[in-house]
Amino acid sequence: MLSLTVLLLVTQVAAQDPRLERLDPDTRSQVVAMLDSARGVGLPTEPLVQRALEGVVKAATGARIVTAVRRLASDLGTARTALGAAASTPELEAGVAALRAGASPAILARLRNVRRPPLTMALAVLADLVASGVPADSAAAAVLTLAPSARDADLVEFRRAVERDIALGASPAAAAGSVLLDAGARTARPGRP
Amino acid sequence: MFERQEDIVERVIGHLRRPVSIDPALDARVMREIANLPSRPTRHPLLRAWPWLAAAAVLAALVIARPWSSRSDRPDAFQFVLVAPRAASVALVGDFNDWDAARTPMRAARGGVWAAAIPLAPGRYRYAFLVNGAEWRADPGAPAAMDDEFGTPSSVVTIGGS
With an 8 Å Cβ cutoff, are A132 and B158 in contact? Predict the structure, then answer.
């Protein structure tokens, strides 16, 4: 009777999102439960589905998939607390990346206060800088400095310039500082359009 | 003896400075000829206004299409490239195609370059290349996904919204 109920439940959920049929039944039921929990507290579920599907295609074990999805759900909640209830799904995903890169929730909250939404690119650049080797504190300081006035394209260019300097042999922290100084000088130059 | 160059120049200048005598009746003759020219036919007002109408149409088209605008209802196509000279097949797999290895096969170009372009709305996407159906590779030209929990490399791409 119990197994029949579980089977019916899984079949019903799979009918709602056929993508989840790629998961084995046990993993699927656990993932579905987490999706329901996330939905219940207003978190986006699509990132969780994608993380589960990534695990499937990469032949991860069910336990590993469940762990990854659970951790992502938790981090999405932390990001939303820091970024506010109005944060979009891309902002929350980028916020998770920034948190995992080492930025504190307080940094995310400060970013929200100094920059108009969307914050996706600013958060992503922060995470990408850390991935390039820039210390998290330096990356956060640089992004917070640029965030109030820089466009998304400016932030991307900043990240590229830092990566270029690192590739040329500069230390990541020095590269971030140097590029930031250059950006500041350009901004302060009289007659800049 | 040859004439000095300065003297030649002076002579030419002097020649050019001589007043030219013009027939006093020349002005009257020219004006009479102009008056006798056939007048241009009057064009229809619509024909006279066509350059302005054309300019207005172009302006209206630009305002409607707004080609300078970075925002669009249609997501921009994003090009993914991998250099893999010895690969027999490469698939682009990520958040944008439900991590389905069959959905976005990359096309081989010259020099072992594999490419695929897909439309991406603003957001942050994880992805990887699947080479020969078995080997996962990150994009060497993109930031690495630091939080890969499945033991294989992935990359991230962020599409801005402003």
Answer: no
